[in-house]
Write a structure and sequence with these properties.
The chain has 16 helices and 3 strands. It is mainly alpha-helical. The protein folds into 2 domains: 140 residues, no CATH class; 139 residues, Intergrase catalytic core (hpI Integrase, Chain A).
Length: 316
């Protein structure tokens, strides 16, 4: 059978069973990471629980993970279709001892990063099983030990830095920072805001998993957005990719004298969660505001003072 040139995951998902298996087996046998990524994307968008609603960021993260695992497997002499029963654990150990290559970082990969790579590798084997190429599941008993240090300790919220940095931002960059720090948006959500999403004192946000929520906007956020012209005919307020937004914000932090304090946009989102919890003392309301599915997630976004219950226990 002549194999047609396959350009994307949609084409792969439309193959008949035999052609799909042949393509997957060939890619795994030759460590063709590009094709294995497309097979994984085809599975994720057509056969996983979320199907076509799988987010672009998830697909991008899994692509990075598949590429990393395939290259490790090739270098380590692991046959992708017939891995050893301990190979999943070997890859986990490799991740846990691998130096971090992030800019300005030292030490090993974080537990969260390692877990993300393993999740992508697991998705690859689900995809290969779906394609009929193998029944192997080398990561079935492989686990990444969680980091015992809470995320709120490793990456605490910005506090006074927000007001210090805002004067060093142009109007559009200031609006982006306020959307994260005062409206509690993820940076991906903020970069996707359109003029039509604004409804007076609230904003319609399309979040993770295509979930839609309505977020109240404070006066500073409203003022920053009201005068911001759209950047295209679709009404988008930002035309930056994540890396471009990060570059601009990092530069503003340096200009404000807080270059060493820069910890990414997530610390700005934690700023809003911490301030709202301080005002309400209600994790449920904070979780709804941030768009969390679980209050347990919200607790990781709030910096509670060490002496938060000191007054309550004073006269026990």
């Amino acid at each position: 059978m002549t194999l047609v040139q396959l350009r994307n995951a949609v084409t792969i998902a439309g193959l008949d069973d035999r052609a799909l298996r042949v393509r997957a087996v060939e890619a795994a046998s030759t460590y063709d990471d590009d094709m294995l990524i497309m097979v994984t994307h085809a599975y994720m968008t057509s056969a996983s629980r979320k199907g076509a609603r799988t987010s672009r960021r998830t697909l991008e993260a899994y692509a990075l993970a598949v590429r990393d695992f395939v290259r490790w497997a090739q270098d380590s002499g692991v046959q992708l279709l017939r891995p050893g029963r301990r190979d999943g654990g070997r890859y986990v150990a490799h991740l846990q001892t691998r130096p971090s290559l992030g800019r300005g970082r030292s030490g090993h990969l974080s537990a969260a990063t390692a877990a993300g790579y393993v999740a992508g590798a697991r998705a690859l084997y689900r995809a290969l099983s779906w394609a009929g190429a193998t029944d192997a599941h080398p990561f079935q008993d492989a686990h990444v030990a969680p980091d015992p240090t809470p995320g709120i300790v490793k990456n605490p919220p910005y506090m006074h830095e927000i007001d210090a940095v805002l004067p060093h931002c142009d109007a559009r960059l200031a609006a982006l920072l306020l959307l994260c720090a005062h409206a509690g948006l993820r940076v991906s959500e903020a970069l996707d805001v359109r003029r039509a999403d604004l409804h007076g004192a609230s904003l319609t946000v399309r979040g993770k998993g295509s979930k839609v929520r309505r977020v109240p906007l404070g006066r500073r956020v409203r003022s920053a957005l009201d005068t911001l012209p759209p950047v295209d005919d679709g009404g988008r307020l930002f035309d930056w990719k994540y890396a471009q937004a990060t570059y601009r914000m990092r530069k503003a932090f340096r200009a404000a004298g807080h270059g060493e304090a820069w910890r990414g946009f997530h610390a700005a989102r934690k700023h809003s969660g911490t301030r709202l919890y301080t005002a309400t003392r209600d994790f449920t309301r904070v979780g709804l505001f941030l768009g969390h599915a679980s209050v347990d997630t919200t607790r990781r976004y709030v910096a509670v003072q060490d002496d938060d219950v000191a007054a309550e226990v004073e006269f026990f």
